[in-house]
Amino acid sequence: MNTQRCTLLLGAFLLGVVGLLSAPLAAHHGSNISYDTENPWMTTATVVSFEYRNPHPWMTFTRVNDKGEVEEWTGELVTNPTFLLRAGWTKSRSEAALKPGTVVELTLATARAGGFNAVVRTIRNEQGELIVNSGGRGGDAPAAPGEAPARGRGAGARGGGAGQQ
After folding, report:
1. Global pTM?
2. Do 72 and 22 share a structural domain?
3. Number of domains into which the chain is organized
4. Which terminus of the chain faces fewer neighbouring Cβ atoms within 10 Å, N or C?
């Protein structure tokens, strides 16, 4: 009887530990909570910096708003370095393609908290090549130039909206 009780208590304890440890994993993926993903918009931007890091790469960029004013934004890519690598976008290739001064076309979802912060869903270079495609709701795999997106709504998911330039 005592052995059965200890086994039952140990099992309950381990189940509770697994539950507690898995909660942060579910909480991490909150793009729809943090960003207005229902209203993506596009803009032409100039890369200031790009950081290839986990769990998501970040970039700083400038854009000119409708009034002709320069705004400096920060953006977290929906995709992660693993998906970038699978599509052939190594750290050195990504940093070369997104070096400071590079002009890109971005599809963004603005932060619900306001400010000049957004999640970056797609990045195209001046030649129109797709560097990153996260046009769907999740961390879609980026498409190598000329390839179809791995999943999601794809390159046609440009959406118009307020702030489009």
Report:
1. 0.65
2. no
3. 2
4. N
